């Protein structure tokens, strides 16, 4: 049974009719007192709750009711309903334990999808056995450490739902691979998986890139363009580096995720999209929310489920497996004989700090194989390449760093890498263990001008 709490009889009737057509049993009540009578008597499967009752618009009644419901029925998911201009009320409700929120007027398809997601997740036991991950299609995810297995168990539990997922972790930890695993293990596996690097999209191109445009919509629009949301329809959209999104673009993204509708530039007709959203970032979004550089309502919209990837330093037992995988791939791609590793080579690799995580390990293994040309690699082979690779860092000893801020150290390291590689940004990004997009952002942040090679 789904309980609807709203003081507007038209809203109660509309929601009840929609739910019954979708095959759900619905019960409606006009206010907090009647709602608590129902909640005390039985546990609804889900509650749709308005935030305002009588003539009040502060949302206090709704927040109080939510807290009371959570005392009696802590495991029942609650979806809040509020006006677009009062989303901050919904954010307070999410902080108080609500599952999700919708804005009035709502989109029936989007609301039904959120209800289905809430019911699916409520039905998944939180202590599901680890064996669930054994049936997971892991694709190219290599490793068996406890930290990685915990991530894969979470993926196995939530993949078949439509829940939005936020993947966090340092640069180079494999967030895109986890996003792909969520898609290929979902019910959308036969539909598109569209990747978008938000860190590489400027504010001026955001709408055209994400929503598309019609020919003539602006000066350079010589042809129609299909946006990423339309390309991802029925499938999954992966929003990488979402922490780098400009505040004005955050508002536009929130509206699409909220209503699952968008408008193509040059065409005022709203278009519907049915997508699952998976986001990723190496930024601390909670800190950004507190600093008001990332919208709190968008934060709650994208992180229904949060998956935190461990750094390579936290899963060192996986390093030999990853090194073997990268060596085999290198041999396959370049038609080379299989490269072996000595025991001391694997011990050496397992002790390195890896600020660039898996991406750095991959680069080191591939570079050493190509440079050495030996059938069996030992620690000295990797040591030689690692020392060459790490010269800029080695050059700045502790005394030269004294009195420098973290930003100053980062800027100096980038300048050293640029000088060493003569401005070749691809090599600089590889040396630093970051993506080119992340390097571009740092160059802009530190006002470093480069004549790209």
TrEMBL record:
InterPro entries: AAA+_ATPase, AAA_lid_NorR, CheY-like_superfamily, Homeodomain-like_sf, HTH_Fis, P-loop_NTPase, Sig_transdc_resp-reg_receiver, Sigma_54_int. Pfam families: AAA_lid_14, HTH_8, Response_reg, Sigma54_activat. One of its GO terms (molecular function) is sequence-specific DNA binding. Residues 1-119 form the Response regulatory domain. GO terms for biological process: phosphorelay signal transduction system; regulation of DNA-templated transcription. The keyword Hydrolase does not apply. The keyword Ligase does not apply. It comes from the Bacteria. Keywords: ATP-binding, DNA-binding, Nucleotide-binding, Phosphoprotein, Transcription, Transcription regulation. Gene3D superfamilies: 1.10.8.60, 3.40.50.2300, Homeodomain-like, P-loop containing nucleotide triphosphate hydrolases. Residues 141-370 form the Sigma-54 factor interaction domain. The modification 4-aspartylphosphate is found at residue 50. PANTHER family: C4-DICARBOXYLATE TRANSPORT TRANSCRIPTIONAL REGULATORY PROTEIN DCTD, TRANSCRIPTIONAL REGULATORY PROTEIN. This is Two-component system, NtrC family, response regulator. It comes from Bacteroides stercorirosoris.
């Amino acid at each position: 049974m789904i309980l609807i709490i709203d003081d507007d009889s038209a809203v109660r009737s509309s929601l009840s009719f929609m739910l019954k057509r979708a095959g759900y049993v619905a019960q409606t009540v006009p206010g907090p007192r009647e709602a608590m009578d129902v909640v005390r008597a039985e546990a609804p499967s889900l509650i749709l709750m308005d935030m305002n009752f009588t003539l009040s618009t502060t949302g206090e009644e709704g927040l109080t009711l939510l807290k009371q419901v959570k005392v009696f029925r802590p495991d029942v998911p609650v979806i809040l309903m509020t006006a677009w201009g009062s989303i901050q009320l919904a954010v307070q409700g999410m902080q108080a334990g609500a599952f999700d929120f919708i804005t009035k007027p709502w989109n029936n398809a989007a609301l039904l999808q959120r209800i289905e997601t809430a019911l699916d997740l409520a039905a998944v036991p939180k202590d599901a056995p680890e064996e669930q991950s054994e049936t997971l299609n892991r694709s190219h995810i290599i490793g068996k450490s406890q930290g990685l297995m915990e991530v894969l168990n979470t993926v196995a539990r939530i993949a078949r739902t439509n829940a939005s997922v936020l993947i966090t972790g340092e640069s180079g930890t494999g967030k895109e691979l986890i996003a792909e695993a969520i898609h290929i293990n979902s019910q959308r596996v036969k539909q598109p998986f569209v990747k978008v690097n938000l860190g590489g999209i400027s504010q001026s191109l955001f709408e055209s890139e994400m929503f598309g445009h019609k020919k003539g919509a602006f000066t350079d629009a010589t042809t129609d363009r299909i946006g990423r949301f339309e390309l991802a329809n029925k499938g999954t959209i992966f929003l990488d580096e979402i922490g780098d999104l400009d505040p004005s673009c955050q508002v536009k993204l929130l509206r699409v995720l909220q209503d699952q509708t968008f408008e193509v530039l040059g065409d005022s007709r709203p278009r519907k999209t049915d997508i699952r959203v998976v986001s990723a970032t190496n930024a601390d979004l909670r800190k950004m929310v507190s600093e008001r550089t990332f919208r709190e309502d968008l934060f709650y919209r994208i992180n229904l489920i949060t998956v935190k990837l461990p750094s390579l330093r936290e899963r060192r037992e996986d390093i030999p497996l990853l090194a073997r995988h990268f060596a085999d791939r290198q041999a396959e791609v370049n038609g080379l004989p299989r490269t072996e590793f000595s025991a001391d080579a694997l011990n050496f690799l397992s002790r390195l700090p890896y600020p660039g995580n898996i991406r750095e390990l991959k680069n080191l293994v591939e570079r050493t194989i190509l440079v050495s040309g030996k059938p069996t690699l030992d620690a000295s082979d990797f040591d030689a390449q690692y020392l060459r690779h790490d010269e800029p860092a080695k050059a700045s000893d502790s005394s030269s760093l004294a009195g420098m801020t973290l930003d100053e150290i980062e800027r100096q390291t980038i300048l050293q890498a640029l000088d060493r590689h003569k401005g070749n940004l691809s090599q600089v990004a590889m040396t630093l263990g970051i993506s080119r997009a992340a390097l571009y952002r740092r160059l802009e942040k530190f006002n470093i001008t480069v004549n790209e090679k």
